[in-house]
Amino acid sequence: MIQYLQKLRAKRGFTLMELIIVIAVIAVLAAIAIPLMVGMVQNSQKRSVESGLETVLDLAKNFEAELNNQGELIEDGTETVDMGDGNGPQTLKEYILSQCPEIKSGGTTGAAIVLGWGRVQEVYYREDFHHAGWRRNEGYKPGARFDDIDYGLAPMGDVLVTKWGG
C-alpha cells in the first residue's frame, strides 16, 4: 500500500479536487473584483463629465465677463469677443470649440448653453450617455439630461447656444 501511494505521489500533475478548489477560489475573487472595477469605471466617467461641465461653464462665464468688461451683455451668443487666445474675435460657440478639443465634429461629446437676461443661465454637458448640468440659482445637477429642457438637444460633436424661449 505504501509503495502504491509513493507511486501516486511520484506522478506529476494536480488532482481533480485540487483543480476544482483553485477554480472556486478564482471565481470568488472574480466575483469580488469585477463589481469593484465596474464601480471605479462609472465613477471615473462621472468625474470626467463633471470636469467637462466645469470647463465649459468656466469658459462661458469668462466669455460673459469679458463681454461685460466691454460694456455689453451676452444676449444670444452671436456677440464676438477677442479672448486673447490668438484666435481673434470669436462667438461664444467658436470660443468653446477652440478651447475644448474633446468636442469635435463626429464625436459623442456635446454641450448646450442657455442665455437669458444678459447672463449664462444654464450649461449642459454630455459624454456618450453620461450627462451633467448647471443652472444659475440651483448649481450643479448630477445626471442632468439634455432632453429635460424645452430648447432642444445639443448635437453630439457640437455646442448649442440658445436663449431662453428662443
Number of DSSP-assigned strands: 7
Number of helices: 3
Low-confidence stretches: none
Residues in helix, %:
40-55%
Radius of gyration: 28 Å
Q: Provide the succession of SSEs.
A: HHEEHEEEEE
Strand order of the biggest β-sheet: 6-5-4-3-7
Mean model confidence by pLDDT: 83
For the largest beta-sheet, the strand count, sense and barrel status come to: 5 strands, mixed
Rough shape?
Answer: rod-shaped
Fraction in beta strands: 15-25%
What structural category characterises the helix and strand content? Answer: alpha+beta
* Measured distance between first and last alpha carbons: 93 Å
**How many individual domains?**
1
What does this structure look like?
- With 166 residues, the protein is α+β, with helices and mostly antiparallel strands.
- It has one domain.
- The chain is 43% helix and 22% strand.
- It is built from three helices and seven strands, in the order ααββαβββββ.
- It has helices spanning 2-10, 16-69, 92-99, and strands at residues 81-82, 89-90, 109-116, 119-127, 130-135, 139-142, 159-163.
- The strands form two sheets. Strands 6-5-4-3-7 form a five-stranded mixed sheet, covered by helices on one side. A two-stranded antiparallel ribbon has the order 1-2.
- α2 packs antiparallel against α3.
- The longest helix is centred in the first third of the chain and has 54 residues, at 16-69.
- The model has no long low-confidence stretch (mean pLDDT 83).
